[in-house]
Amino acid sequence: MKDSIGRIELADCFAREAACLAPFAMHSGASRGRRIPEPPHPYRGPFQRDRDRILHCAAFRRLSQKTQVFTGHQLGDYHRSRLTHTLEANSIARTVGRALRLNEDLIEALSLQHDLGHPPFGHAGEDVLDESLREHGGFNHNRQALRIVEELESRYPGFAGLNLSEEVLDGQRYRGDKTAAGPKPLLEAQVVDAADSIAYDSHDPDDALQVGLLQLEELETNPMWSEAARRVRARYAQLEPLELRRSAVHELIDWQVSDLLAATSQRLAERGIDSVTAATGCGVTLVAPGAELLAMKLELERFLHARVYRHPRLLAMRRQAQDRLRAMFVGYLARPELLPRSFAKRTAEHGLARTVGDYLAGMTDRFANQEYRRRFAPRT
Ligand code: MG
To answer: Quick check: 9 pLDDT over 90?
Structure first.
């Protein structure tokens, strides 16, 4: 349907979804809307707008300089950053969502949002902020993502935060507390969760090999990797180690996505899921790998935890990052006049400790290192 000057009307977004999406998908027209009501956009649906708001926010761009597993230039520039991890997870989630006829716009908004709350230096940084804010409610990257999109981003004159649709906020609320009783999240949010896991279970072995924390022979002792490598060798008999590695990573993604689609479709069919309410109220997570692959994924994750995430080289970098962040937390508490004005004016309402936490959490690895050296490093 077009209006008088030939623009496609918003109704087409709803009509398109009605024609394409499965009955258990979240349809934009059924959204609970935004905290502050806004007029509909002439040609973008509500979840498309959410996706764009997230993509254009400062916290999203900062993901390019934030640690996924490996920090910055000390280990070269091959490995994933928080941003490239997010884009890989997003791509996988959209593939899964389209195959299941779910709402891709909502999936994209949720996946671009999912890691926005990570502080500098990954989980090492998160642990320091959690410990520093213990008496003020602690720190968690999932909850921090909500603080960012609900209040910290300042991009629109009419409201603080991004004023996202309730379904996009709900997806992030669920990530913060997955053990909560009550209905399960929308299938779109379940897809993003599964895609996040597929992305890191595939790219972390690749990065670990590239930066030399792991040797191919060691990884071959893991059943999931060796099965992926076996499948590749069955197609290509003679491969250089590097070629094998790259093909095995692709195989890992393809295998996990195919398994996820098969296992999920089977659950949907067996339970006769025919609506959003049926999907969220059935008491189980419907978008999940099959039991056999799930066991292999858990074993791969244990392997990576022991051999990669706890590798002495990473632990040394982790300690240095934590010492710096701790010194900065104490430093800004002692000298709040160093806070930028936009944060300083939040202290009256949110308290100094939380405000310092928000400021530090927003920093990229690079900016945190720079500010540490400039203001807080011991003078020699
Ligand atoms: Mg992630």
So the answer is: no
pLDDT at 10 over 90: no
Residue 242 Cα to ligand 1 middle (Å): 26
Q: Is residue 1 part of a domain?
A: no
| DSSP per-residue codes, 320-352 | HHHHHHHHHHHHHHH-GGGS-HHHHTTHHHH-H
Range of the domain at 203: 10-376
Task: Name the residue with tokens 């937390």.
Answer: 329
Give the rounded distance of the alpha carbon of 99 from its chain centre.
21
What is the CA(46)–ligand 1 centre distance, in A? 24
Q: What is the pLDDT of residue 179?
A: 77
- Between the CA of 118 and the centroid of ligand 1 the distance, in Å, is 9
d(C-alpha 42, C-alpha 13), whole Å = 10
Q: How far is the CA of 83 from the centre of ligand 1 (A)?
A: 9
| pTM, full prediction | 0.94
Q: How far is the CA of 52 from the centre of ligand 1 (A)?
A: 19
68 assigned to some structural domain: yes
The answer, yes or no, to whether residue 249 has pLDDT greater than 90, is yes
Cα(239) to centroid(ligand 1), Å: 31
CATH number of 167's domain: 1.10.3210.10
Mean pLDDT of 174-197: 91
The pLDDT tens digits of the residues spanning 143-165 come to 999 999 999 999 888 899 999 99
Our count of domains for the chain comes to: 1
Q: What is the mean pLDDT of the chain?
A: 93
Q: Find where tokens 């969220």 sit.
A: 280
Q: Residue 251 is encoded by which pair of tokens?
A: 């195989």
User: Ligand 1 centre and the CA of 121: distance in Å?
Assistant: 14
> Is 4 within a domain?
no
2 within a domain of the structure (yes/no)? no
94 Cα: distance to centroid of ligand 1 (angstroms): 15
What distance in angstroms lies between residue 85's CA and the mean position of ligand 1's atoms?
Answer: 7
Q: Which two tokens stand for residue 373?
A: 């050296």
